[in-house]
Amino acid sequence: TAVDKMKTYGEENPTLEVVYSGFKNEDEETVLTTAPSPSTTATSASAAGEYPISLSTGSDDNYTLSNVSGTLTVNKATLSASAPDQSREYGEPNPALSVEVTGFVNGEDLNVLAAPPAATTEASTASNVGTYPITVTAGSDDNYDINTSDGTLTIT
What we know:
Number of helices: 0
Distance between the termini: 66 Å
Largest sheet: 4 strands, mixed
Shape: rod-shaped
Strand content: 35-45%
């Protein structure tokens, strides 16, 4: 039986393993003429989801081998999206709000996200002196979970 495995999007595949049952006379897999070998089509660039782990055909004169496939589950990688703190003077327009995103894998960037994170604030030109939250919305993607960290707009 191919052992089920898990990994995170962008990581190399884990070592694939086979477990055996049904040996007699204290035999182990080392007695097999040809042991089944596990493989998968998943790579470090494979999207989040499930991929089969198949076994090559093994052989032996004393045993009939029955292969059972396994599953490699590729979980989403995690991104961190944060809004840098900003400031401005009373009566001035808000500065351009931005979101810094870290944690991309496979050389990817914001362009791969289905919906990128965005920053907004309730503060307007007429807002009084004080602090206002800069709220980050996470966005979405099939290969990434996006954690957010809000910032602060200070009006002086």
